[in-house]
């Protein structure tokens, strides 16, 4: 049976709520890894079984992912900050090299964003457990299918652009849609 408009509205509101809950769960910076992993696992379950996991399952996943998610969160934040600062310093002329260094730095930023997106998908497939195994699997996927890295980076770039264009209060809603889009793109390319 073809889904009706009410199914579309329900799914959209579920993803919006997931984004809001992910943003709230990420407010304590060290909890961001657990929040993203739990949201990704929920999206994976919803994509595979067409139903959301039970609240008890979701809370258990979040609790299990808290400590293991701290280091990947800090590593990810530090990497993004360093790459953006490096790119800003190069493009402003603070560091010699200009365009010759800006292009490889930008490409490195794109690759990192794509691999981060693939890692989010992999952590969801693993039930919100095993960040390092998910990162290794994402790297293997990226090496086997470079277009998956580009697609993940494209999703992240689109979400970032939308985040700059919409009312700031709505930015958390994008998190749920971003995680869903990453899963959809990864599923399509696999």
Automatic annotation (TrEMBL):
It comes from the Bacteria. Keywords: Membrane, Transmembrane, Transmembrane helix. The chain crosses the membrane at residues 65-87, 99-121, 149-182. This is DUF624 domain-containing protein.
């Amino acid at each position: 049976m073809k889904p009706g408009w009410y199914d579309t509205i329900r799914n959209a509101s579920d993803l919006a709520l997931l984004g809001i809950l992910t943003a709230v769960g990420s407010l304590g910076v060290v909890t961001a890894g657990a929040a993203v992993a739990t949201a990704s696992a929920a999206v994976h379950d919803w994509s595979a079984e067409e139903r959301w996991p039970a609240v008890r399952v979701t809370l258990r996943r979040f609790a299990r992912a808290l400590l293991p998610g701290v280091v990947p969160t800090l590593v990810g934040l530090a990497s993004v900050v360093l790459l953006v600062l490096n790119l800003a310093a190069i493009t402003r002329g603070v560091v010699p090299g200009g365009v010759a260094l800006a292009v490889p730095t930008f490409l490195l930023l794109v690759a990192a964003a794509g691999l981060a997106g693939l890692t989010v998908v992999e952590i969801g497939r693993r039930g919100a457990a095993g960040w390092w195994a998910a990162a290794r699997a994402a790297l293997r996927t990226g090496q086997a299918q470079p277009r998956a890295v580009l697609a993940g980076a494209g999703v992240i770039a689109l979400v970032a652009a939308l985040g700059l264009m919409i009312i700031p209060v709505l930015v958390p809603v994008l998190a749920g849609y971003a995680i869903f889009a990453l899963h959809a793109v990864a599923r399509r390319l696999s």
